[in-house]
Every structure is written in C-alpha cells, then in structure tokens.
Protein: NAD(P)/FAD-dependent oxidoreductase
Organism: Paracoccus mangrovi
Amino acid sequence: MEKADIVILGAGAAGLFCAGSIMQAGGAGRVLVLDHARKPGEKIRISGGGRCNFTNLATAPDRFLSHNPRFCASALAGFRAADFLAMVDRAGIAWHEKTLGQLFCDGSAQQIIDMLLSRMDGAELRLKTSVDGVVREDSGFVVATSAGPVQARQVVVATGGKSIPKMGATGIGYDIAAGFGLPVIAPRAGLVPLTFAEQELDRCRPLAGVSVEAEVSHVHGKRRTRFRDGLLFTHRGISGPAILQISSFWKPGEEITIDMVPDVDIAQALRDQRGQAGRIAPATALGRWLPGRLAEAVAADCGLTGARLADQGNAALLTLGQRVNRWTLRPVGSEGWRTAEVTIGGVDTTALDSRSMAARSVPGLYFIGEAVDVTGWLGGYNFQWAWASAHAAARAV
Ligand code: FDA
C-alpha cells in the first residue's frame, strides 16, 4: 500500500497553507496533499471578486462565530494578519486596504495561490483524487481514495465546508469526524443572500441597482447583532455586505431590521424641515439622505405621494421615519449552499485542542479551516482562520 507520513485532505486555503508551513519548517517526511478538484485553491481564485480579500487587519476572536467563541483565540494569536501580510510582501504581491481593514490583491487572487504553492515545494500535490474516508490502523491511518488506499502516520482534514457544491464542497470532513466519534455542530449556510416574500420583492425589484450604507440588525434572544455596511437592492430582493453579514446570525422565522440612514432620526429631521421648507414633497425632503428612487418608493409606501411636507402631521412623519430608520422584514429563507460563502458549524471545538487543532481522542488526526466550527464575518476573516488554524496544525504534526 502507498505510504506517506502526513496526508492532508483538501488543497484549499487551509490545506495548501498547512503543507507550505510544514515544508518551510523543514518538512516531516513524505507530505501528500489530496484533492478531487482539477486545480488547487479554487475558492481562493474566485474570492474577493477575483482579487482575494486575503486577511483583515482587525482580526480578533470576536469576529468569529462558534459554539465556543474563545476557541479560535490561540491559533489566531499564533499566526496574525500581520504574519500573512509579511509573506505577501516578501512574495512581492501588491495589495491595498479596501475598507474596514480588508486587504485585497491589487492584481489577481492567482498570485496568492502561486505564493501558497511555492511555499510547499517538496510536498506532493495530487489532484483529481477524491477522498472517500479515513480509518484508524495500528500504525496510523488508512485514507481511502479514488486512486486506492494511502497509509498515513498523521492526517490533516482540510476539506472545508458544504458551501458551493458546484466548486467541489462535499462536507466529507464531518463524516470523517463522525466516523471517529467526534461531535459535529449541524452545518448551515452563512454569508448568504436572504430571500424575501413576493410582497417585499415587488417593492425591491423596481429599485434594483440602488445602494445605501445601512445598519442591519437582528435580535436573537437577548443579543442584538448589527452591521453597518453596503445594502443593495436587486431583482432577487436585498443583498450586499450588510445582508450577508447578518445572514450568519439569522435563523428561519426571525426578523431583521434595516436602518437606511443610521445617523439621522428621520422623523425628527422631517419635523424640523416641515417648519423651514414645508412646500416640498416628503420624497424630496427624504432625498437629502436617500437616493431619489428610494426616497420616492419609501414615501409612496407610506401613502405620501404628491403630498406637501407642511400638510403632514407628526404621526405621518413618524411612520415615514420608521420606514427609513426601522424597516422590519422577515426573510423567508436563504439562497442556501448554492451561493453561501461559508459554512457555519462543523467539527465541534470541544473535541479539538485549540493550540494544535488535533482531535483530543484520536492522536495524529487534525481538523483545520472551514471544516471546524469557527466561522468569520465577511471581510478576510475566513482566510485568516484558514491560515492560522493550518499554521497551528503544521507546528504540531
Ligand atoms: P476550501 O473549501 O477552500 O478547501 C477545501 C478543499 O477540499 C477543496 O479544494 C475541495 O475540492 C476539497 N474537497 C472537499 N471534499 C473533498 C473530497 N471528498 N475529496 C477530495 N477533496 C475534497 N474568505 C475570505 O476570507 N475572503 C474572501 O475574499 C472570500 N471570498 C469568498 C468568495 C466566495 C465566492 C466563496 C465561496 C468563499 C469566499 N471566502 C472568502 C471564504 C473562503 O473561501 C473559505 O472560508 C476558505 O476557502 C476555507 O478554506 P478551507 O481550506 O477550509 O476550505
């Protein structure tokens, strides 16, 4: 039977980085990376609109969702955003900060893939080979693959989550964990467009293309989560980074609240304007803070088409203000695995050592990257988790 010292399952962000870190530290015998894709790092290639948002300068444990929010702290402290950035600089890759600490390549995401591949010189990358399972054996593990079994002293599972099956996501990491009796937090789609009822779609479709900087919030139990970021009206409803962020926290049946002008109490501002410029229409008055088409639509929604601001009572202005500052919607679902950028849930961190990512009850077995129940916000955090968790495992194997 074919033998290797370390077999890494998955040639995505975490698997490639882990192999590179092992080789950079001097290697560890024969290191084999397996993936069923035709090319390595496919999600890196399409990430960040082709420019890869490869890290975030504001990385901290509070930017991640997990059943154990502190679990990620050790790995993140062991390999920081600045450490990855130093590698990017050494590789001569030009980058820029877009917003909120998000770092992107100036050129192409392929530069990041090339950098990862060059770091793992000496390791063997075998593509177009699917992994079917892992079992324990006296001397280590046997990995079942489409090209036959491979015996390994240690196995690193970096097979990612379930998002975008078309790109090769399988969720096999969860099956491997379950096969060893490790708990798995039920995976669900995150950073995903939410879907809305027909009545809301009718409101949104005519506004397709309009965008605002909004604050989207969500209450779950006693906890309110809010994100201020772009909100985009589309033919399919409402999307944009603010919606993607809140989607990771939203559960079916719950409401979200959108504040389209977060810094202004619109009802109060309209009452002030009523005294000074009462002859203008409410939509015109709203146009000071909202794009014209959106202002018109909101005023029409509140039955104020063609009216004069001066003729509106406080109650009408309050309704209008609430429609702008506290627009409450109940999404009917999400677009699911087809378009989700990440998977929330995964291998339960209670089964893993936070310093090494090793399965506590299975010496020699490691889980890294998105397969683990650690999921970042939008903005480069998920790659930073892939790098940091891979680095932690690479030091331990
Ligand atoms: P990843 O999914 O990258 O790799 C897993 C690998 O395992 C894949 O190559 C897959 O083919 C392989 N595999 C799975 N099952 C297998 C099997 N049975 N046999 C063999 N191989 C198997 N994050 C971020 O920080 N910044 C960003 O800009 C973006 N942008 C972005 C855009 C889009 C469209 C998506 C879908 C996602 C992002 N992300 C992101 C998220 C980011 O891509 C993601 O969190 C990381 O790729 C996770 O890295 P992993 O290595 O854990 O999984």
Summary: The CA atoms of residues 28 and 134 lie 20 Å apart. The two ends are 22 Å apart (CA to CA). The chain has 13 helices and 21 strands.
